């Protein structure tokens, strides 16, 4: 009999495919048998996402010297053109792919130990039920977001505050936009997905037990078994030739630089860029600012910024001794790992948050889309690793220069709040690292997941063998 395989059903996207693969690779590393992974790849809807996935698959194939990871391209289908919101679009697309996923799983030569699905891919659960294969949801966001989704229809809202188990009362204004409008398609999709999570055999969450203990305890009896196996980070060995940003950091004093970086999709209007420049300049802090230009028509990812055009006149010249503005994607993890970085103004994508905590860097949240406003709330009010920054969500997440100046100074200076969040970030760094060590909470969660999958495998093998004897 061929070695068992875990089937992965990710969606495209920086924060989805790679973290899921990385998480499941942990299963391979910690397993005592020859497990493999079979990744079902769908064609992403934009050419830039397509290039990103192709690049990732290529790199993974090159690195997989033992041939333990197999990539299977799902057939191309016609994509709907009438959907506006990205999260509706993803859910709709996943439904259309179900027959192809079923065919791909049914024709695999290897026995399937389990199917791991992205949190937008619950339609695949039908296949798992029909084929009696254990299913696991890989939740790329945090446990607090999972708790929020589980309680979507409970309607416990009082005076604009929402009750999420294990968290202080959450202002309604901090909820993800799709969850604020109960009549929207996105809301309906999230209700659908969150109900279906209950049908899975387990929920793998990219968090550590020590990061969100109260939330994890509060939802433990209301969900399938939760496996907090994080932080899942795709860390690479340092490049032989250090990146220009890293070389610039080499010449800065320890913990003196604030990093500003806004994920794979973050960019700002020209007036907001000017406002940011004024705030940063006035703060007098050293900064590394990843500033990308608005996306091209029909695309979602930012373009390379034209700094001379975008920034106020003379800004680059005046700040050249204190700051570096980088107009493209930057190596965020390498930057956060650098001892010169002392704070991070972040859009609060969960991967960026975990990276910041892994390196013990405190944050100031500037959330933009998806569940980031909710993450910002938990970072300030629950984890205590970020200083609050006021923004106008109604005005495209506008932040005044004075407010940016204040928040950056609070984060980098010696105020009580600054010291407190810095101390907490260091404590979280230690907790994250311990969680991944042998015997740590996340290590043990992977072990239990593996034990469960191995148990299923033995059961299946016995049934097959018994059937053969009849
Ligand atoms: C994949 O492309 C998109 C994803 C999102 C999106 O929306 C979203 C909405 C919610 O109500 C709750 C969520 O948790 C959520 C998450 C989400 O995206 C992912 O969040 C991850 C954790 O932070 C991680 O950052 C991933 O990279 C995100 O993709 C929204 C969206 O457009 C608005 C997308 O295009
Ligand atoms: O200039 C950039 C912007 C982003 N990232 C990486 O892209 C990922 C972004 O994921 P996250 O969940 O934070 O946000 P998203 O882009 O999904 O909104 C993280 O690993 C970042 O380190 C990066 O390396 N350089």
Automatic annotation (TrEMBL):
GO MF: glycosyltransferase activity
Entry's localization field: Nucleus
Family annotation (CDD domains): GT1_Gtf-like
Pathway in which the depicted protein is active: Pigment biosynthesis; anthocyanin biosynthesis
Catalytic reaction list: malvidin + UDP-alpha-D-galactose = malvidin 3-O-beta-D-galactoside + UDP + H(+)
Database matches in InterPro entries: UDP-glycosyltransf_plant, UDP_glucos_trans
Stored Pfam families: UDPGT (PF00201)
GO cellular component, one term: nucleus
Keywords for this protein: Glycosyltransferase, Nucleus, Transferase
Function: UDP-glycosyltransferase which uses UDP-galactose and malvidin as substrates to catalyze the biosynthesis of malvidin 3-O-galactoside, an anthocyanin conferring purple pigmentation.
Family: Belongs to the UDP-glycosyltransferase family.
Name this polypeptide is given: Malvidin galactosylase UGT88C3
Origin species: Urochloa decumbens
